[in-house]
Request: fold
Amino acid sequence: MHTKTVAQLAQGLQQKEFSSVELTQCFLERIDALDPFYNSFISVNPSAALAAAATADEQLTRNNAGPLTGIPIAHKDIFCTSGMRTSCGSRMLDNFVPPYDATVIRNFGTAGAVILGKTNMDEFAMGSSNENSYYGPVNNPWDTSLVPGGSSGGSAAAVAAMLAPAATGTDTGGSIRQPGAFCGITGLKPTYGRVSRLGMVAFASSLDQAGPLARSAEDCAILLGAMAGYDKLDSTSSELPCPNYRATLGDSLEGLRIGLPREFFGDGLDPATGVAIDAALKELEALGASLVEVSLPHSKLTIPTYYIIAPAEASTNLSRFDGVRYGHRCVEPKDLHDLYTRTREEGFGDEVKRRILVGTYALSAGYYDAYYKKAQQVRRLIRQDYLDCFEQVDIIAGPTTPGPAFALGEKSNDPLAMYLEDVYTLAVNLAGLPGMSIPVGFVQDKPVGLQLIGQHFGEARLLNVAHRYQQTTDWHLAHPAMPKGE
Amino acid sequence: MQWESVIGLEVHLQLATESKIFSGSATTFGAEPNTQASAVDLAMPGMLPVLNEKAVRYAVLFGLGIGAEIGKRSVFDRKNYFYPDSPKGYQISQFLDPIVGRGDFKIQLEDGSTRNIGITRAHLEEDAGKSLHEDFHGQTGIDLNRAGTPLLEIVTEPDFRTAEEAVTYLKELHSLVTYLGISDGNMAEGSMRCDVNISLRPVGSDTLGTRAEIKNVNSFRFVEKAIRYEFNRQADILDDGGTVAQETRLYDAERDETRAMRSKEVANDYRYFPEPDLLPVVIDDAYIEALRGQLPELPRQKRERFASEYDLSPYDAGVLSATRAMADFYENVASACNNPKMAANWVQVELLGRLNREDVEISASPVSPQALSGLIKRILDNSISGKIAKQVFEAMWQGEGSADEIIAARGLKQVSDSGQLESMVDEIIATNTAQVEQYLAADEVRRKKLLGFFVGQIMKLSKGQANPQMVNKLLTEKLV
Reply:
């Protein structure tokens, strides 16, 4: 049961091969038995999950079930869940139980899905290795000495280890695609504005976007269909109607033009990873696509631009964590200043503090023009690079990451090396475009991800390309071995 | 040295929307602490602001009311600072691209002269909550009911030279915004709060001195007093050869002084940047024109019309058009009694005097426009004298009924029956022989004075109801 895709599970549920309670129980047992090896979950509430499953079973009995009715889904612990702790991977919110659901959670609830649990993540979604969690690092199911990527590392690991059929994540600079690639699963970051950010703890408001992590493009299409849509409570969400993402999965790739940015295939790309990417591109060519070399001339400005804008927004988004209304509060503050400084010193980890400092600096009087304003100008140039490319091609493809998953601890003391991990993914967020990562092979038994970048609101096309690729390959079906000691 | 003050004002105007600027919570004043604070107002994780369209509409109405440029694309910014009554750690405000740009505001001083005050800009922002320091035994309570109430911050050029000009502006601004219906203008509830920027320079100079900013002055009278105090303080420093510190000060009404705020209370770098959770506000011409069509007659127009149409002095026209309620009241009385001058007198002297003494708003006046015009009609048709009318007005205030009912019930109708008056005149002449002799022996000038004595006696006899003109006439006829 645990190896099946969401699409297969839905069929099983609807044909009464098993119930949602049985399915949910199966995953709860797997989490119980196996998650000590991965640490992919922060919170699991079995009784609530089983109760939701029982409700879904009633719906299934009445035959008014949708594609997600009764499917257990793991949610990144950044989505507020009413009555269930939402920690965001931080000591700051270790005691925080929201009285409301994020729109994403509510949408899944409406679709009849079951909340399986809340997954581990880099604190406030800041990180590329999931080593910045207050709840400890997550281990990569393919090799527990490796990082799973981040910041949605718990979600990616849980799906890869088959502790959940699918999961939600958020992606501010690669936080769905990079762990998706490192864990050998399929992940989609939708267009900015496609999925409501309401109830999602904010990291960088102009970049954050929620999306699915799953075993297949088809599953991502099913999940996106439930998650996406206009939310009047998120002013930045799009009113553009969502297409039926499943309907076009099988469309032909004949005539599809795929742009290959030369900046993504230069120095810095691990050669073995490059080989796997090339093979995947050949496969797409065989399916009817043509490969076109394109250029994104401002690519080398991506990292500095991102590391001004994201920390700037984060520095003020995180101001609300002040110990006054909720979350961590230091013991016996002697005055207001002490309350603020000690609460935040104790509540935040190093990477979060680093970014608050960088962002505060970038927004400060006298530096604003040189940093934040300049970064916004460059951001427009980066976006324009992509729009120019889309004059020539339909989608853009390249590696998701410069190399496969690295070892735990390898880069955790070198923030700049860590930031380079996201060199291929950051610009997609800066430009507000949709991006996917799909597994396309292995380098020394470590999964490799191919990144597909679409035009604004072009998720259907990305899913279509990924699905056609997965119809003729089986990289996405590969499973990691059971952990040692099992 | 002769000093001149240079003053600019920043007014924080609470807009009279039912709900907050970025959440659906109610904005009613005086509710139990934190009962009007939603998850958005509490800055709970993941909560997002949604702009209240009505706040935008009110801001645009204000801009149109002063003939200002309307920002076709205005942008919200985050103004970052930590304080417990600012739950997000930033205030959503507008910095570089405000919704209302440059405009002009003409004020009229008491002597009838006018001055033009430049409006630099007006921008939308959210109000903060309140810190409550009493009743918590060394702790501080936070009430977030007010957090997120929409404010329009209206900033002037440094165009005021005197406290009188500043207060006149504030009164006329108050009048304008209540006319527009965009604010309840309730000063006591903090609907209009003022920051005063003031510096001094030698009379005749056109350079600016170093200014002090006086924060949160919450009544017209305090603005006047704070400016006077600050003028003297700065003049003393400058006269002694010192320099004025650029600083933020607080006005302490109890001691009638300003004093520097502690440096901790003054944030110096707000790190403004565009609010990424909100889109720019884009306003098109159709929206602006639709609102322009809804503009009511504004105080200045009304004042000018009252002066010309009703032949009132500029001062009277100003008083009677000060609020929409006042103007409507006056116009109702004037048209019902068909004598705008008399209506102006009665509204301004008797009614306003009484309302002010009892601290009653004109909208809650126990004497309605219809009732007051009913009274004036009886004066105009000689049913009662002006003096009796004051008695009737008092009775009307006490709720004893209409003018006619009171006149009838109390038998106050003026005696104009010549037979009745004649017998009264005869009686007074007969019982005051000494005065009659004096009168007959006197010259024209003294006669006039003595006549008053006889009139007074007759009014006494008639309990004030004798028609004074007829009594005069009868007396002069008989005293020969």
User: Anything to note?
Assistant: The first strand of chain A starts at residue 41 and ends at 43.
